[in-house]
């Protein structure tokens, strides 16, 4: 069940209850057509975050394997992805683990009901109209993080990705993908969602059940290349705000990497450096085509860790013309209607629905836990950069400045009153 990829779209954490490193992740099996169709929720644990064990649980068997590390299988309601796991150490035993996860009933599989969840009064399936899949968030509870009990379906709908976290006051925040029309110059015909531009939006909820309407928080801007779009946004809270990790999709070459971002309030985000904070490797290596982070970054014993799935393939590999030719010859029924004239008759580089063959493994990157954001001068050289604070109380006899200089840099300061430096306290 993991013959194609140990994928991400899940959560890695140091469990505050027992101190173990735990991973709830998605596995992909290599199938005849593609490796993305069968996505199962799996589980692994570790004492050090490096050497991992797949426990034999006996929750979901697999042909030939009565005991596996599978927690949610295809038969329970189709594919699974983007599992956000939250731990409540002080909650009643059967409510200590909470999970929001996207289920895809009706997508690539005949299962159109997610087991254990009530159907709407006017529906006989959890899928969309006429049997089409309708991704949505399903909420589970567990006493041990392994055997999950269905809880409820939220009104949080997304195209196919998102991360959910809980704030200190008990409320919830979701960052997920949405789409807008592609801006001028950004249309890439061979993209799987040609004509749509992926952006990040934010929703909140007081209880995790009822969610607000979304508000856009990250969209391509004039500093981005015309083919830039966004897949995911996770965050790590810091004093005075939060540092985000943005999954960035480059349509022209169909690669995915990650960038840092910052925000004071979780609504307005800035990306002062548009370079990848975790660069891609060579195409064909793990992490050479796509990097899919886990949720979220982990700050632990002086380091910050990022677990991710390093994938070898591209996002919908348009170079793979043989499968397209095969599907054209077979008049494969899964083509969206508006693509049919183009795909079946003319263009061998046109997209297949879903992601073509890719392989991936669980990987880890880490940084020393220094300052994750700071004010810096952008000019460099011998130019003087100036930073002015807001008004501060000066009732003490010492002022501490949190600063680091580089190379030949120095820092100077002065006290100013009514726009003039105080004598004895000038920069000189």
What does it look like?
The structure is a single chain. By secondary structure, the chain is mainly β. 4% of the residues lie in helices and 34% in strands. The chain has helices at 321-330, 340-345, and strands at residues 5-6, 11-14, 21-28, 39-46, 52-53, 70-72, 79-87, 97-104, 136-142, 149-153, 162-166, 172-181, 196-205, 215-218, 228-238, 241-250, 255-263, 269-270, 290-293, 298-300, 303-311, 360-368, 416-417, 420-421. The strands form six sheets. Strands 1, 2, 3, 4, 5 and 6 form a six-stranded antiparallel sheet that branches. A four-stranded antiparallel sheet has the order 7-8-9-10, with no helix packed on it. It has a four-stranded antiparallel sheet with strand order 11-12-13-14, with no helix packed on it. A hairpin with a 5-residue loop joins strand 4 (39-46) and strand 5. It is globular, with a radius of gyration of 24 Å. The N and C termini lie far apart (69 Å).
Write a compact overview of the structure shown.
The protein is mainly beta and about 425 residues long. Helices cover about 5% and strands about 35% of the residues.
Per-chain topology:
Layout: E1 5-6, E2 11-14, E3 21-28, E4 39-46, E5 52-53, E6 70-72, E7 79-87, E8 97-104, E9 136-142, E10 149-153, E11 162-166, E12 172-181, E13 196-205, E14 215-218, E15 228-238, E16 241-250, E17 255-263, E18 269-270, E19 290-293, E20 298-300, E21 303-311, H1 321-330, H2 340-345, E22 360-368, E23 416-417, E24 420-421
Antiparallel strand pairs: 1-3, 2-3, 3-4, 4-5, 4-6, 7-8, 8-9, 9-10, 11-12, 12-13, 13-14, 15-16, 16-17, 17-18, 19-21, 20-21, 21-22, 23-24
